[in-house]
Design goal:
This protein has 185 residues and is of the alpha+beta class. The protein has 2 domains: 88 residues, no CATH class; 79 residues. Helix content is 54%, strand content 19%. The chain is built from 4 helices and 6 strands. The strands form 2 sheets. Strands 1-3-2 form a 3-stranded antiparallel beta sheet, covered by helices on one side. A 3-stranded antiparallel beta sheet has the order 4-6-5. Helix 3 packs antiparallel against helix 4. The radius of gyration is 20 Å and the shape is elongated.
Length: 185
């Protein structure tokens, strides 16, 4: 039976570099990345390895996935795992970084920001609609309908606030990279 371990993520929008560094540190201790997990990563026991990890945010259609992965493999990066449009690669230290200049880094983060923008906008609109319904149309605090709408409202707030913060972090990350070179689009 394979030994497995879970490592919590600090949130890729907030600490991508820190997560990748922690994964590298774990690999040097014999715990290599196996896959994404809910709010983190699954690691598997292996021989200690000196690896660096890097992320790419890219929507890739199924019929293009082999070509996409070949590009990274030819540059020395091994595909480790993917979830939705987020892909993690590993390589030996000294391998040329996946993103080596500001313009490609901005493109990388814009891929993530684009998806987050629409998810966040949808969640904000849905939460606003439920708020209006809850405060305007639902009579009687003791009614089942009122209680159901209230539970839905709390659930939506619990999703909308982190989504909004994640989107804001994504926009900030793009701004921070652009600030290093204001001539970039």
């Amino acid at each position: 039976m394979k030994q497995r371990k879970y490592m919590m993520s600090e949130g890729l929008a907030f600490s991508e570099e820190k997560d990748m560094k922690r994964l590298s540190d774990m690999a040097s201790k014999g715990w290599v990345l196996d896959s994404f997990a809910f709010m983190g990563y699954k690691l598997r026991k292996a021989e200690p390895q000196n690896l660096i990890y890097s992320l790419d945010y890219r929507a890739v259609e199924d019929h293009n996935i082999d070509e996409y992965l070949d590009i990274f493999e030819n540059a020395g990066w091994e595909h480790i795992c993917s979830v939705y449009d987020t892909h993690i690669f590993a390589a030996d230290p000294g391998t040329k970084p996946i993103y080596s200049d500001r313009s490609t880094m901005i493109d990388k983060y814009k891929q993530s920001e684009f998806t987050l923008r629409y998810i966040t906008l949808f969640m904000l609109c849905l939460t606003a609609a439920v708020t209006v319904i809850r405060n305007t149309f639902i009579p009687g605090e003791a009614s089942i309908l009122h209680n159901t709408i209230h539970v839905l409202f709390v659930f939506l707030i619990a999703i909308t606030i982190p989504a909004t913060l994640t989107y804001a972090a994504s926009v900030f990350r793009i701004w921070r990279v652009k600030r290093r070179n204001p001539n970039l689009e």
